[in-house]
C-alpha cells in the first residue's frame, strides 16, 4: 500500500509543533524553578546562608561570555568551597534574576586553577588556614567579607592577616565597598491588607528570649534580668531553663508567635549598622521584636514594626509600655500593618548583585586606600561599637546583680 505522503508530512509537522511547544513549556518551568530556588534564598539568615541560591546542574566547563567578570571564592565559608551553594558548573548567574540590578553577568567559581582570570578574589571572615593566592595580579581586587560585628575582633589577630592585602570591604556597614546586610526591606508590589492570623487571646505569655550567648559585650543579659523583674520573660536555649522541643528555627518561631506577645532581639554587641537575623527573623512572624542594637532601626526595618529599648529610660519603663500594649489588641496589631507595604528579603542576593554591578562599573568608595583596615573596621578609637548603654543605665539606676540563670558563658 502506498504511504499517504501528505498525511505523514502533516503528522510530522504537528509532532514538531507539539515538541517545540513542549520544550518551550519545559524551559519555562525550569526557569521558574531556578528563579524560585533563588527567591527561596531570600529567607536566609546567618545560620542559613547555605540554603540560598542553590542551583542544580551537572559538572561542565564554565563558558565565559566576553565582558563577564569572574569572581573567585578563594577561602571556604564554613565547609563550603562555593560559598552560597552554587554548583561549580552553573555559576554564570544572570544577575537581573537575583535582584533588581542590571543585566551584567558575573561568573562565580572556587576553582583555584583559574586564579589568573579572576577579577575579584573573595576571602571569608577569618576563615582558618588562610593561604593567599601565589600572585596578586594588579588588575585584581581582593575582597574581604565579614558578617560578624567588630566586637569579636578586638584584641585578636583577626584583621592583622588582612592588613595591606585587601582592596575592598564587604560587610553590613553602609560605608562598605559592597554593602552586604543580613536582610533588607523591599516594598510589596501588590498591596493587600495584612490580616493577623493569630487570635490575640492565644498569646497568653509576654516575652520570649531565645539566646545562646549568655554573657555579652553589650550586657544585654543585665538589661533582660532587670526587665524580668517587671514583666515575664521566658528564656529559651543555652542561657535559660526552657528548651524548644524541636530546636528547629521555623518550628520554634511558630510556637512562640502563637504564645507570646514580644520577642527579644538584642544584639550581642552594639555596633554601627549591625542589625542581624535576631531582628529580621521575628519580623517574618506575628510577634513584635523588642530591639537593642547599634543599627539605625528607623532606616533599616519597616516603619512601626519594632520596639526599641533605647526609646525608654529604663527596663521598667519598657516593661510598663509592653504591658499596656499587650492589653490593647488594636494598638498591638498596628505593629503588623507594615506587612501590607513591605517584605523582608535576604541580603545575599542583593549583595551579589551589587558586587557584580560595582565590579563592572569599577565604582567602589575604597576606604582602605586611605586608612588601615583596623581603623576602618574598628574605628581608630574603637568608636564603631559602643557598649556602654546598659552598664551606664545599670550604674545609674542601681539594678540588682545578674541572676544565676544567666551566669553561664559560651
Ligand atoms: C579547574 O579549572 C581548570 C583550568 O581551567 C580545569 O582544567 C579543571 O578541570 C577545573 N576543575 C574543575 C573541578 O572544574
Ligand atoms: C589591590 O591592592 C594591591 C596591593 O595590595 C594592588 O597591587 C592591586 O593593584 C589592587 N587592585 C586594584 C584593582 O586596584
Ligand atoms: C537614621 O536614618 C534616618 C533615615 O534614613 C535618618 O534620618 C537619621 O538621621 C538616621 N539616624 C542616625 C542616628 O544616623
How does this structure look, described?
Strands 2-3-1-4-5-6-7 form a seven-stranded mixed sheet. The protein has a five-stranded parallel sheet with strand order 10-9-11-12-13, with helices on both faces. Helix content is 29%, strand content 15%. Residues 27-62 and 89-100 have low confidence and may be disordered. The protein contains eleven helices and 14 strands. Helix 5 (277-283) links the parallel strand 11 and strand 12 (288-292). It has helices at residues 5-40, 95-98, 220-227, 249-259, 277-283, 297-300, 315-327, 329-333, 347-361, 373-378, 389-397, and strands at 69-73, 92-94, 105-109, 120-124, 141-145, 168-171, 178-179, 183-187, 205-210, 233-236, 260-266, 288-292, 307-308, 342-346. The N and C termini lie far apart (87 Å). The longest helix is centred in the N-terminal third of the chain and has 36 residues, at 5-40. With 410 residues, it is α/β, with parallel strands linked by helices. The protein is globular, with a radius of gyration of 25 Å. One 2-acetamido-2-deoxy-beta-D-glucopyranose binds next to loops. Pathway: Protein modification; protein glycosylation.
| Residue fraction in strands | 15-25%
Radius of gyration, whole Å: 25 Å
Mean residue pLDDT: 81
Helix content, binned percent: 25-40%
Largest sheet: 7 strands, mixed
The best one-word shape is globular
| Distinct small-molecule ligands in the complex | 2-acetamido-2-deoxy-beta-D-glucopyranose
Q: Which regions have little confidence, pLDDT < 50, spanning 5+ residues?
A: 27-62, 89-100
Count of helical stretches: 11
Strand order of the largest sheet: 2-3-1-4-5-6-7
Could you tell me how far the N terminus lies from the C terminus, measured between alpha carbons in angstroms? Answer: 87 Å
How many strand elements?
A: 14
Order of helices and strands: HEEHEEEEEEEHEHEHEHEHHEHHH
Structural class: alpha/beta
Amino acid at each position: 500500500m502506498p504511504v499517504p505522503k501528505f498525511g505523514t508530512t502533516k503528522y510530522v509537522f504537528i509532532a514538531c509543533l507539539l515538541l517545540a511547544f513542549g520544550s518551550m513549556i519545559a524551559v519555562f518551568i525550569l526557569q521558574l524553578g531556578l528563579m524560585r530556588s533563588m527567591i527561596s534564598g531570600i529567607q536566609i539568615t546567618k545560620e542559613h546562608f547555605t540554603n540560598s541560591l542553590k542551583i542544580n546542574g551537572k559538572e561542565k566547563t564554565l563558558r565565559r561570555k566576553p565582558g563577564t567578570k569572574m569572581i573567585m571564592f578563594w577561602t571556604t565559608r564554613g565547609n563550603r568551597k562555593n560559598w552560597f551553594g552554587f554548583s561549580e558548573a552553573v555559576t554564570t548567574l544572570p544577575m537581573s534574576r537575583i535582584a533588581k540590578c542590571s543585566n551584567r553577568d558575573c561568573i562565580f567559581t572556587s576553582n583555584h586553577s583559574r586564579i589568573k582570570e579572576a577579577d575579584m578574589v573573595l576571602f571569608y571572615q577569618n576563615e582558618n588556614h588562610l593561604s593567599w593566592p601565589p600572585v596578586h595580579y594588579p588588575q585584581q581586587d581582593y575582597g574581604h567579607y565579614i558578617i560578624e560585628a567588630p566586637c569579636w575582633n578586638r584584641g585578636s589577630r583577626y584583621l592583622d592577616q588582612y592588613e595591606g592585602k585587601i582592596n575592598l570591604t564587604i560587610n553590613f556597614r553602609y560605608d562598605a565597598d559592597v554593602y552586604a546586610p543580613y536582610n533588607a526591606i523591599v516594598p510589596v508590589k501588590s498591596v493587600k491588607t495584612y490580616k493577623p492570623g493569630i487570635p490575640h487571646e492565644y498569646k497568653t505569655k509576654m516575652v520570649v528570649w531565645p539566646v545562646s550567648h549568655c554573657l555579652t559585650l553589650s550586657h544585654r543579659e543585665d538589661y533582660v534580668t532587670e526587665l524580668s523583674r517587671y514583666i515575664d520573660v521566658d528564656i529559651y536555649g543555652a542561657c535559660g531553663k526552657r528548651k524548644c522541643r524541636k530546636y528547629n528555627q521555623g518550628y520554634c518561631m511558630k510556637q512562640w508567635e502563637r504564645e507570646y506577645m514580644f520577642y527579644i532581639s538584642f544584639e550581642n554587641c552594639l555596633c554601627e549598622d549591625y542589625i542581624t537575623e535576631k531582628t529580621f527573623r521575628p519580623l517574618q512572624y506575628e510577634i513584635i521584636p523588642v530591639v537593642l542594637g547599634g543599627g539605625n532601626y528607623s532606616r533599616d526595618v519597616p516603619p512601626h514594626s519594632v520596639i526599641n529599648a533605647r526609646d525608654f529610660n529604663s527596663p521598667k519603663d519598657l516593661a510598663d509600655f509592653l504591658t499596656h500594649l499587650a492589653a490593647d489588641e488594636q494598638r498591638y496589631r498596628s505593629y503588623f500593618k507594615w506587612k501590607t507595604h513591605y517584605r523582608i528579603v535576604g541580603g545575599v542576593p542583593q549583595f551579589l548583585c551589587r558586587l557584580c554591578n560595582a565590579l563592572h562599573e569599577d565604582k567602589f568608595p575604597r576606604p582602605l586606600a586611605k586608612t588601615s583596615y583596623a581603623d576602618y573596621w574598628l574605628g581608630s578609637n574603637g568608636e564603631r561599637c559602643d557598649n556602654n548603654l546598659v552598664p551606664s543605665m545599670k550604674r545609674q539606676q542601681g539594678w540588682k546583680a545578674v541572676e544565676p540563670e544567666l551566669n553561664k558563658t559560651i
